[in-house]
Amino acid sequence: MVQNLVNSICPFCGVGCGIGLVATDNNIISVHPLNKHPISQGKLCAKGWNTAFGISRHGRLTHPLMKIDGKFREVSWQQALSHIAKSLKKFISESGPQSVGVISSARATNEDNYAAQKFARAVLKTNNIDHCARICHSPSVAGLKKTLGSGAMTNSIDDVGKADVIFVIGADPTENHAIIGGQIMQAKLSGATLIVVDPRQTRLAKVADLHLQLNIGTNIALLNGLLNIIFNHNWQNEDFINQRCEGFSELKAHVAEYTLDKVAKITGVKGEDLVKAAKLYSQANASFLAYGMGITQFVSGTNNVIAVSNLALICGQIGREGTGINPLRGQNNVQGACDMGCLPNVYPDYQSAMDQKVREKFTQAWGTEVANFPGLTSLGMSHQAKDGHFKGLLIFGEDPVVTDPDRNKVAESFKVMDLLVVIELSMTETAKMADIVLPAASFAEKQGTFTNCERRVQLINKAVNPPGEAKIDWQILKELAKEMGVPELMDWKDSEEVFHEMTQLTHSFSGISYAGLQQNNGLQWPCNEEHPNGSRCLHAKTFPIGKGKLIPVDHAPTDEVPDSEYPFWFTTQRLHFHYGCGSMTRKSPLLERETPDGLLFMHPQDALDLGLKNHQGVAVSSRRGCVETRVEISDQVSPGLLSMPYHFKEAPSNLLTNNAMDPGTEMPELKVCAVKLVPLPENQPPRSSELSDVGIGEQYA
Amino acid sequence: MLNHSYLLKDLDILKQHLAKFYSMVQIEKDANGEERWTDQSDPDTVGLFGHKHLPSTSPKGFLFAEKEALYKFDGETFESITPQVVPKVLFGVQACDLTAIAYQDKFFKQDPYYQKRRENILLVGIDCESPCTNGFCAEVKAGPHVNDNTADLVVSRLTVNGSNQLAEWLVIAETEKGQNSIKGLPLDKAHKAHFILRNRLLDKMRSEFADYSYINNAIEYLNDNAVPQHLWEEMSVRCLSCSGCTNLCPTCSCYSTYEIAEKQPDNVISETKAVKTETLRVWDSCLFEGFQREASGHNPAQQAAQRVERFWFHKFSDEYLTEFQRYGCVGCGRCEQTCPGTIGVHSVMKRINQECCS
Ligand code: SF4
Ligand code: SF4
Ligand code: SF4
Questions:
Q1: For B79-134, what is each residue's pLDDT tens digit?
Q2: Which is deepest, A125, A227, A384, B318, by most CB within 10 Å?
Q3: Do B197 and B331 lie in a common domain?
């Protein structure tokens, strides 16, 4: 039993902590923290510590499976791939390349993501390539692209420790990005002032100097109100505005109507607290602003991001150490999946797919004609499927049936597709609906790179062999390209070759090699001739679009507001101990034990009014569906607001959530809708909504 | 002791000798600069020793496995799984971790899995020469020199702070196992003078520690039940239940067992279908809310404050002195480094001291 010790990166969230894997007998038995890692410095959160369970051999897919007469049967790779290739070719020739697509994964490596978009664009000749960022941070990409020219976190994580004021809005970092959350708590302990803006009383809110507990969905009113206070007191940074921004007078005129009284009324926050927050943020030497999905998951998501950007620009709190606009991204490699071009409109490094020159560049480099019509988002693909125009989809490591809004519609669209291929670690809800399921290698079973939220590209290393016949995503695509008759397009020998090809075709990554990553404990892009050691802080002298744009935006009510029929506000949240659809974290008996009995958080007052006992069963319904679960009485939420974590397939919050969308980005309004609630008789346990439990899985099988 | 004490010029001679009989476990540094206890280390690799190299992960896992199968059930019969062990030497264990192992020996006295591994391990301790970053072993009587009867062999460098005329290394065989392990090595006997020198070095080193008196003050407050509830509450908001402290703490010993059934998902038809279950045990953490939750749902430690308080009570309460003859904390300082919420041992004891003496 030789012990194999391999350093890698935690596969859970966008913080990207260093993690040491301990393997014996080709099994990861434990992990340990890495003291020398620049971000985690010897720390991990509960998810990180429990990594070994998530990728244990137990419950893993080991063979390609094909559904025959409603049951999966093991088949050879050859059978599976040739079936897929034949079908794809048929769809393309009959209905054109618009009829096929790929959804890649924010959990997969940069190499896998690069391969996925190349497979779509060069082999299938389609821009129908997407991944899940849409439901986390697409408004960040869109909003910050407009105001700054780049959608990534502007500063570095350890800038938290260099800030005088830390302003956290719509993010719950101690639960979702625990190691950043810890650094924020530590910074506060060593003297920084902490302001938290959140409708829930999060852990950070408890330790904060100032908690603005706003009504849900009133971010823009609050941010515009802060701007107005700042202008009224002349607290803005004139020099910065003059030199680096445009649109100042329009913005100033626009926010004038957001008077203190009006804003206090809309947001429910006391006027004096608004003034305090405005003063603290604007007057500090360095203010670090972080936000999360409490900003993005709204129909006004893009405008929310713009409002955040306005505040930072007006105060000149950007472009220096300890400042910045810092979106905290969810999944471990959501940054990388975007960077690699797993979006319908951009190639790697955000080169526009609409730009003829870009297409020519890639046509030349890849030696084949690339896709030349606009692509569909994942949502677009499901819509087209329902209309019969979309036939074949490959999904890598995503479980949209659990995580997407409005699960029933997603499930229906999968049902009508002619071919659904799911490449996964284990039999997820989505995989159950597939025609073919291919076994994938986990992060511990391959080499590659992840890019964390501070743009740090980091190496992961192979500690164990994949179970059974499982393969790495890019290898699967390479084999599939061969079956499709174009072996030369994706003929890489290892992940380093994939990475190298990518760096040759991008500017931001052109200075990065595996050797450099190994030597430097990762490198932050842009890393190229101008920035050979990478970039800790963006926009020091200028923005990618020249001057920063101040864009007036208006408060608008959320798509749904409570009424007499659906009287409660409903929001979604994450639990510290779980991640995504729970398919990895729920394998840990320790983390599973931490799941509260009740999954619907409710203020004690509401429980009293309804005569509900803690953990009593309830049926929650919205205009879209109904879920049964138990209540968890908690003062985290304010009266009238119910909150539910989205990790649990037996009580999927996405049966309830609204799919009204942010216009530009198709970001669904996951953060808020209206629901009603009916208590179940006291001893009646809630029914599970797991697909297979309610028979949907069977029905589609 | 003098009877079983020797002098050694080159530590490598001892190591190579032991490597003939034992699989080598020593501290190595990897390409990223991480230092850790490395199993099946090549004896020709130069290991790292002493205070400058206390790995963040203690050697606890070599005795109390982080995850191990206890028994199997194949549908008909139960089969116990005994750990497969080979004789190992842990070469160069620091005093704090040795004290912790002696503590665990008591806790796991009746545990066959622990004992099976323990019997096959030879502990070679090393005296530390200077305080390490977060360590306060002297404050809790766990070091800096190896405590009596916690190792099989102790090696102590006598040339600290320049050369002396006497010898390079003092080697003390503390147990019969230790004595046997060096049989056949031609070693000169040590004299009283060497022990006097060792003690002098110890005194000197003790004086080099920072002022950690807040730790013993806080221990007193803890035992007097003088720590106000609001302080526990304030500190416990910062506990993210990551389990880092309990995983890294060399004296933490909580575990859970769980069962896994080996079977394919129902809707898969497979050639290789056999239902087996295996019972595993894994390290657990008392900082998890679910740790003490009973089947009825009742939980004596539902509040984070109760859990954090209990953890520190376990480390520093006089109540455990009868059973273990010492505190549960050996002063390694690991929890300080790993706690994302900044409530490791120094942070907590400082705050208790500040709060209670003001
Ligand atoms: S904070 Fe994120 S990256 Fe770090 S250990 Fe936790 S889940 Fe992993
Ligand atoms: S409580 Fe902390 S300092 Fe004490 S032995 Fe455990 S890890 Fe080391
Ligand atoms: S290391 Fe800190 S945060 Fe983690 S469980 Fe221990 S006390 Fe809690």
A1: 888 888 999 999 999 999 999 999 999 999 999 999 999 999 999 999 998 899 89
A2: A227
A3: no
Q: Which of B206, B234, B258 represents a domain boundary (last residue)?
A: B206
Strand, helix or coil for residue B30 = coil
Nearest CB to B290 within list A30, A178, A594: A594
Dig out the tokens for A484 from the structure.
């499709």
d(CA B32, CA A20): 11
Tokens of A77: 């790779």
- pLDDT the model gives residue A696: 37
Domain count of chain A? 4
Residues whose CB is less than 8 angstroms from the CB of residue B224 and which lie 6 or more positions away in sequence, other chains included: none
Instruction: Report which listed range, A502-516, A582-596, B59-73, B300-314, is most confident.
Output: A502-516
Which residue's structure tokens are 């002195």? B321
List chain A residues with pLDDT less than 70.
Answer: 1-2, 133-136, 402-407, 578-584, 595-598, 648, 650-651, 689-701
Q: What is the structure's pLDDT at A405?
A: 65
Residue A257 exposed, middle or buried by CB count within 10 Å (0-12, 13-18, 19+): exposed
Task: Identify whether the C-beta of residue B318 lies closer than 8 Å to the C-beta of residue B213.
Answer: no
Residue A536 in domain: no
* Strand ranges, E, within B174-269: 188-189, 255-262, 268-269
Which residue segment(s) compose the domain that B114 sits in?
2-65+82-206
Q: What is the DSSP letter of A623?
A: S
- Integer Cα distance of B194 and B28 in angstroms: 29
Best interface-test mutation with B: which of A13, A17, A49 has the largest number of B CBs within 10 A? A49
Given this model, what pLDDT does residue A588 score?
A: 78
pLDDT of res. A699: 32
CB A154 within 8 A of CB A172: no
d(C-alpha A120, C-alpha A100), whole Å: 9
B42 at A interface, C-beta within 8 A: no
Across the range B244-252, mean pLDDT stands at: 95
Question: For residues A658 and A672, what is the distance between their CA atoms, to the nearest angstrom?
Answer: 7
Q: Which two tokens stand for residue A145?
A: 């692209």
| pLDDT for res B16 | 93
> Which of B232, B238, B245, B336 to mutate for ligand 3's pocket (most ligand atoms within 8 Å of CB)?
B245
Residues B180 and B48 reside in one and the same domain: yes
Q: What is residue A237's predicted lDDT score, i.e. its pLDDT?
A: 95
Domain co-membership, A519 together with A397: yes
C-beta neighbour count of B226 within 10 angstroms: 13
Which atom of ligand 2 is closest in space to residue B140's alpha carbon? 4
Note the Cα A521 to chain centre separation in Å: 24
